[in-house]
Specification:
With 618 residues, the protein is an alpha+beta fold. The protein has 12 helices and 38 strands. Strands 1, 2, 3, 4, 5, 6 and 9 form a 7-stranded antiparallel beta sheet that branches. It has a 6-stranded antiparallel beta barrel with strand order 14-15-18-19-17-16.
């Protein structure tokens, strides 16, 4: 340090205000600088503090020479008593109090002297580094601004100066603190650029302990990484992730962590891990449940994750046969439940299926139940489409207790009444057709069909359709989403892709009179304890309740009145019921009536009475 001092002093002491008077006159000349301070009491108190430091017998003369040389620089830059001299001198005293004079002071001082020697280097930047050095010596602060602090509990720090002023940090726990919360990186060391806040970490480990998870079972490790310490977040592109509650092996992916204010650990959403691989397969993630897809850990939530092109998928088996597939970008996976929003559902029924493009999926392990819920958000407003019975099903929820041969269709538990509609896929009303067109110059169903013919495919994007029409993409997307609710198109909001459904072409044929349609619609209204419908998985018959009347023909004025408001819906809209049939002025009563949809015929198996209305002169 002595050799450096000779060079250092030679460059600045010849004409220096402080070095000229030597250490004996330093305090006197410092008092002259502070004499201009408006706060005389603060100036006097500070001078007394410096005097105690300056006159202590153990203070190395080399340090005194350093201080005088730097004071000359501050004087040449017209430094102010407060904060310029005060911050510098309190930093020197902090090094002395921290017993860090021998190891770090010379390097730090060389860096500060070199920076301040630059003609255009502003004092305010030096003051920030003075403050940061004090915080480091007192509280182990590596970098700080008005909003946050990055600290380390490492046992050793080393300053270095090359192109910038750096602080080398031994292994320890790196912590970012804000007024709301903190994030931590364990077993990490590295180097921080004190002028920019750029951190280069050597390796590290992040746990999910703040999310309430065991740090020995859920954590991520990684090699070299970088942090902008001016921000309250970090990203690591390559990590090895462990969740030993689900996997015996590690997953590779990327991690994102940031400070968030969370009152309850189970509601936390950070740190976030996303696996690279999106096609992991796990059998029996729950009994009779298989999973395929990627994995994510978002705070307390362990998620099955996918992409727009390859969503995560859960397969549910019944009697060793695939029964339900559920596809989504994310599944929240817990030991007691699986939950997902905007879930595409297919339930397989012999030669048909029940389909929904995006609803709330819930599996509750304690109840051993699957709930498929249309919660009124986004695509969930679409009805279920049933290709076995060939009806759309406007019901709020499908509930299945796994292992039970019956499935309930109803409103959410607790409703005073259950409402549902079951409508033939060939149902047509001209007023609804006209309503769809609104003020548009061309009917949207015809427009979609024309676009499909123009680009020679029935699968295209909303952007393609908007360009074809020459109108706004947002307007087109709103229109397409609305049409998907009525089963005219399938629309994937994640990929912006739509597929024309057969119903769209049928509706245009119905309107043109080129294909037969019907008006079959079952309206179900039941008390809260009685489901609107029960699907029997042994034969796929669906028993509807609360159906007061069914009209099958406007022209022929034929109406069915099921006894006790119950009927059994079979494959392709065939149905059985007891009760009454009204056709014009004749009313028939009996049992085992069967409607055959294909022949559009009613089989009157048992008639026990008949009534005829007669018009009179009166």
């Amino acid at each position: 340090m002595g050799l450096f001092l000779l060079f250092f002093m030679g460059a600045s002491a010849q004409d220096g205000h402080f070095t000229e008077g030597g250490k004996e006159e330093f305090l006197e000349r410092l008092e002259e600088v502070f004499s201009i301070s408006a706060d005389k009491r603060a100036a006097r108190d500070f001078i007394e503090e410096v005097e105690t430091f300056w006159l202590q017998p153990e203070l190395d003369e080399v340090v005194q020479n350093y201080v005088m040389a730097m004071s000359d620089l501050l004087y040449s830059k017209r430094g102010r008593p407060f904060p310029d001299y005060q911050l510098y001198l309190t930093t020197v005293m902090a090094f002395q109090a921290n017993q860090d004079i021998q190891t770090n002071f010379a390097t730090w001082h060389e860096a500060m002297h070199s920076l301040l020697s630059q003609p255009r280097y502003p004092l305010r930047h030096a003051n920030q580094l003075f403050q940061l050095a004090q915080q480091m010596l007192k509280d182990r602060v590596l970098y700080a601004n008005a909003a946050l602090q990055w600290t380390s509990d490492a046992p050793r720090f080393m300053f270095s100066f090359t192109d910038s002023l750096y602080l080398q940090v031994d292994k320890g726990t790196l912590t970012c603190r804000t007024s709301n919360d903190s994030i931590m990186v364990f077993d990490t060391g590295g180097k921080v650029n004190l002028m920019s806040g750029a951190w280069q970490g050597e390796s590290g480990r992040i746990t999910w302990q703040q999310s309430g998870l065991d740090p020995q079972r859920v954590y991520a490790t990684f090699g070299p990484y970088k942090i902008d310490m001016g921000r309250n977040q970090l990203r690591v592109d390559s990590v090895v992730f462990y969740n030993k509650d689900y996997f015996s092996h590690a997953l590779k992916g990327h991690l994102y962590h940031r400070v968030m204010s969370v009152r309850q650990a189970e509601n936390s959403t950070f740190p976030k891990f996303e696996s690279y691989e999106q096609r992991y397969q796990i059998e029996d993630i729950q009994p009779n449940f298989n999973y395929e897809g990627g994995f994510s850990q978002h705070g307390a939530k362990f998620l099955g994750s996918g992409t727009d092109q390859h969503p995560a998928e859960i397969s549910i088996f019944r009697n060793d046969t695939l029964f339900i597939t559920a596809k989504s970008l994310y599944f929240a996976l817990r030991q007691d439940q699986i939950v997902s929003n905007t879930t595409e559902i297919t339930m397989y029924l012999d030669s048909g299926n029940i389909y929904h493009p995006g609803l709330l999926f819930k599996y509750m392990a304690p109840l051993n139940e699957v709930h498929l819920i249309r919660d009124g958000e986004g695509l969930s407003r679409s009805p279920f489409f049933n290709t076995y019975h060939n009806v759309s099903m406007d019901t709020e929820m499908i509930r299945w207790r796994i292992g039970d041969p019956r499935i309930e269709l109803r409103m959410l538990t607790g409703a005073a009444e259950n409402h549902a509609f079951f409508e033939s896929i060939s149902y047509f009303r001209e007023e609804f057709f006209n309503q769809l067109q609104g003020m548009d110059a061309i009917h949207p169903l015809q427009g979609l069909l024309n676009c499909s013919r123009y680009i020679k495919t029935e699968t295209f994007t909303a952007r393609d359709y908007a360009r074809y029409l020459g109108i706004s993409e947002n307007l087109v997307r709103q229109q397409i989403i609305g049409l998907s609710f009525h089963g005219f198109v399938s629309y994937n909001v994640n990929t912006d892709t739509l597929v024309l459904r057969e119903r769209l072409k049928d509706y245009l044929l119905f309107r043109a009179g080129n294909k037969d349609y019907d008006v079959i619609r079952f309206k179900s209204l039941t008390p809260g304890t009685i489901p609107n419908a029960i699907l029997d998985l042994r034969n796929y018959d669906m028993e509807l309740s609360g159906v007061e009347a069914i009209s099958i023909s406007d022209r022929q004025n034929v109406v069915f009145f099921p006894k006790e408001q119950r009927l059994t819906l079979k494959k392709d809209r065939n149905f059985d019921f007891d009760g009454a049939i009204a056709s014009g002025m004749i009313q028939l009563y009996g049992n085992s009536f069967r409607f055959n949809y294909e022949d559009f015929r009613i089989d009157l198996n048992i008639i026990d009475s008949m009534a005829m209305r007669m018009e009179t002169q009166e």
